[in-house]
Amino acid sequence: MMIGADLLRMSVFALIAFPLPTWALLVLAFASALATPPFEAARVAVTPEAAGDERMPDAIALTNITFQVAQVIGFATAG
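User: That's the sequence. What structure does it adopt?
Assistant: Structure tokens below.
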């Protein structure tokens, strides 16, 4: 599920790189956003199995830190 969602988002973002009309960019942005909920649901479902009960707080913290660092880097490079 996670790989399929990432592949879908990757292909949509590759299309966004081309010069397209604004309406097409909005449709592609919407299509890329449709793949995020299944990815996040699968990620949350896999985390307890991958980390185990005793390391669950560490896994949640690492996930949150990784997301926040990725956002800061994304904003810094794009902005």
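Residues 1 and 38 are 7 Å apart (CA to CA).
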